[in-house]
Write a structure and sequence with these properties.
Helices cover about 20% and strands about 45% of the residues. The protein has 2 helices and 8 strands; from the N terminus they run H-E-E-E-E-E-E-E-E-H. The protein has an 8-stranded antiparallel beta barrel. It is elongated.
Length: about 160
């Protein structure tokens, strides 16, 4: 009888821990980042970034982010993306037409504590002269450091 009670308590405790682990966490963060081109040190711009959404951790599946991302005057609505174990997120959003658009890929390992976005141009990203947005970053040196730490195998220069 005592073993049965212990087993029930352990199962209930595991269910509670799993429910707490996978409960969606609200994310409301604002950053100042730097948008820059890899091959052109003169092309850089400070940008305000706001992330407003929900992050759901999943035990046996990829984590999920749902929400809106504001980059300067650009609004990426209805972002619904899955986060792989390396922290890579393909960002697709509703541009209020009938199609979802791809914006780029976000690289972040700690739920947007710091992140880099490889911004697509013509549907793809170029690892030699592509555009990157990193945050939080006060200057190009900070932005490049964040980008290289999160995208180390992708940046060639």
């Amino acid at each position: 009888m005592k073993d049965k009670k212990t087993l029930i308590l352990v199962v209930v405790a595991l269910i509670i821990v799993l429910a707490i682990y996978s409960f969606p966490n609200e994310i409301k963060k604002e950053f100042t980042g730097l948008k820059y081109r890899l091959d052109d040190a003169s092309e850089e711009k400070r940008v305000a970034i706001k992330i407003d959404g929900w992050y759901t951790r999943r035990l046996f599946q990829n984590d999920q982010f749902q929400g809106t991302i504001y980059i300067g005057d650009e609004k990426l609505s209805q972002v619904n993306s899955y986060v792989d174990k390396e922290g890579e997120i393909l960002v697709t959003f509703d541009d209020e037409s009938e199609d979802f658009k791809s914006f780029g890929k976000i690289y972040s390992l700690d739920r947007f504590k710091e992140f880099t976005i490889a911004i697509f141009e013509n549907g793809e990203w170029d690892n030699e002269e592509g555009i990157i947005l990193s945050a939080p970053a006060k200057d190009r040196e900070d932005a490049v450091k964040i980008s290289k730490s999160l995208m180390e195998s992708l940046i060639t220069n």
